Amino acid sequence: MARVDANPADVFEALRLRIKTVLSLTDSQCYMRTDPTDAPNFPIGGDYWVSISVGEGRFDDALFEGGGRNQCTVYFDCITTIFTRIQLDQTDHDEILMFNASRGLYRVLSNLLSSLAEHDLEVGGNNVLREPLPPTGIGYPTKGSPPGYEGEHPNLAWLSVNWRIGFDWLLP
After folding, report:
1. Which residues does residue 138 pair with via DSSP β-bridges, in sequence order?
2. Do 107 and 99 contact (CB within 8 A), yes or no?
3. Which among 43, 28, 18, 22 has a CA at the least distance from the CA of 145?
4. Residues β-bridged to residue 137
5. Which of 68, 80, 99, 107 has its CB surrounded by the most CB atoms within 10 Å?
6. How many CB atoms lie within 10 A of CB 116?
7. What are the residue ranges of helices labelled H in the chain?
8. pTM here?
9. Is 68 left (phi over 0), alpha (psi -120 to 50) or beta?
C-alpha cells in the first residue's frame, strides 16, 4: 500500500469506520460530534456508543518550509468518547458501571484501544497517517444526566481518550 496525502473529511471518516467496524456499532452508535464533553441529549440504544470529536491541529512548520504545498503536514488532536449506562450498582457505587464485562467503561476502553492503537488508517486502499495512531491521553470517568434530562438518566457515564492523528493534507 502506498502512503498518500488526504483531506481531513476522509481521514476522520476512515477513523469512524474503523471504530464502527471493529466494535460492531451502527451509525447511530458511532458518530462525529463537535464537543466531546457534551453527553448526548438523549441516550442512544445499545450497550454503549462512541463519539468522535476533532480537536486543535498543528502544522509542521519545518516540513512546510521545505516542501510548501506539497508537504502540508498537520497533526490533529482527536477525542473519542465512550458512553454507557448501567443501573445495576447499589447507590453511590460504580463498580459495575466501570467494569462490567460487556459494557463497563474500562472494558469498552480496552476494546477501543485495541481497535485503534498503532493502527494506520486507509483512504481509497492507501495508508494516510504519518505514524500509526498513538493514544496521547485519557480523561477521568464522568457520570450524570445529559443536558435537559436531569434526573432521567442518572447512570449515563462517559470516558474520553485522546489520539494524535498526523497526515499530509491534500490541497486542491
Report:
1. 161
2. yes
3. 43
4. 162
5. 80
6. 22
7. 8-22, 61-67, 95-99, 105-116
8. 0.87
9. left
Shortest CA distance to 168 belongs to which of 33, 19, 68?
68
pLDDT digits (tens, 9 = 90+) for 106-160: 999 999 999 999 999 999 999 999 999 999 999 998 887 666 666 666 667 889 9
User: What is 10-56 written as a DSSP string?
Assistant: HHHHHHHHHHHHHTT--TTTEEE-S-TTPPPSSPPSSSEEEEEEEEE
CA–CA dist 82, 84 (Å, integer): 7
- Whole-angstrom Cα distance, residue 40 to residue 30? 12
Whole-angstrom distance, CA of residue 96 vs CA of residue 88: 7
Do 19 and 132 touch, CB atoms closer than 8 A? no
The CATH code that applies to domain 8-168 is 3.30.2000.10
Beta bridge partners of 68: none
